[in-house]
Specification:
alpha/beta; binds 3-methyl-2-oxobutanoic acid
């Protein structure tokens, strides 16, 4: 039998962190290698986001991602980060058809992906019913409001939401509604800073912002954006590294060294044949 994972924090701890005024740090991860790196930091929790579709699988939106993709990647993240609380995204159309479908997919994602909670987008009446039903299955739910990427066709693109008094009041109403439906946390994406501040002050559950300003209870970034690793540099992203600038020249050096017979050298060979000449010298 496999040993059960034991995350350092549980779904109730994040409310405590908010109450204590401590900022919550969330980061996405999609595979074992990155999860191992995150596991060695004091980042509070990992989101296996459906941004997977764009940054890892090369789709032009998140809409193509399937439940099976999320489970596959989430389970890999869990293998790399046994100590972290993991939220897995419910992909597009995995919670839209019926309550039964929502519950079944949430359970499959949680169990198959070895996650601690699921996240779903939106605050409409049917989303509220889905949140209630999933929570009733003992599965913690993180809500997600604002610029929800699964709604890009409705929004007419990746546009900041909650601008203007009416839109602001509507998002504030939805934020209260997802809290009342039982969400333990809420991601706020692509909204004016003022609205991020207002929602964070009014709700008792923690708010995690991405492009939602400075006053949310925590922050999340897409790991590839943060690392400059084939990410999308939006206004709200801060680059903490420029990995593409390291990776591309490294790959180019490898290609060059193989062609020149420089790699592998004797130190990279098992029982190397004694020789004073490289293969390129032999050829010339
Ligand atoms: O899919 C994702 O990575 C997300 C974050 C951008 C919040 O939902």
């Amino acid at each position: 039998m496999t040993k059960p994972h034991q995350a350092e924090l549980n779904s109730l701890d994040f409310g405590t962190l908010k109450a204590q005024g401590k900022k919550i740090v969330m980061l996405t991860a999609y595979d074992y290698a990155m999860a191992r790196a995150v596991a060695q930091t004091d980042i509070d929790l990992i989101l296996v986001g459906d941004s997977l579709g764009m940054v890892v699988l090369g789709y032009d939106s998140t809409l193509d991602v399937k439940v099976a993709d999320m489970i596959h990647h989430c389970a890999a993240v869990r293998r790399g980060a046994t100590n972290k609380f993991i939220i897995v995204d419910m992909p597009y159309m995995s919670y839209h058809l019926s309550i039964e479908q929502s519950k079944a997919n949430a359970a499959e994602l949680l169990i198959g992906g070895r996650a601690n909670a699921v996240k779903l987008e939106g605050g409409s009446d049917s989303r509220l019913k889905a949140i209630e039903a999933i929570v009733d299955c003992e599965i913690p739910v993180c809500a997600h409001l604002g610029l929800t990427p699964q709604s890009i066709h409705k929004f007419g693109g990746y546009k900041v939401q909650g601008k203007g008094d009416k839109a602001m009041q509507e998002l504030l109403r939805q934020a209260h509604a997802v809290e009342d439906a039982g969400a333990f946390m809420i991601v706020l994406e692509g909204i004016p800073e003022e609205l991020g501040k207002l929602i964070s002050a009014e709700l008792s559950i923690p708010t995690i912002g991405i492009g939602a300003g400075r006053y949310t209870d925590g922050q999340v970034l897409v790991v590839n954006d943060l690392l400059g690793y084939s990410g999308y540099p939006a206004k709200f992203v801060k680059r903490y590294a420029e990995l593409d600038e390291i990776i591309v020249p490294a790959l180019q050096s490898y290609a060059q060294e193989v062609r020149e017979g420089v790699f592998p050298s004797a130190e990279h060979c098992y029982y190397p044949i004694e020789t004073n000449t490289t293969r390129s010298e032999e050829r010339s």
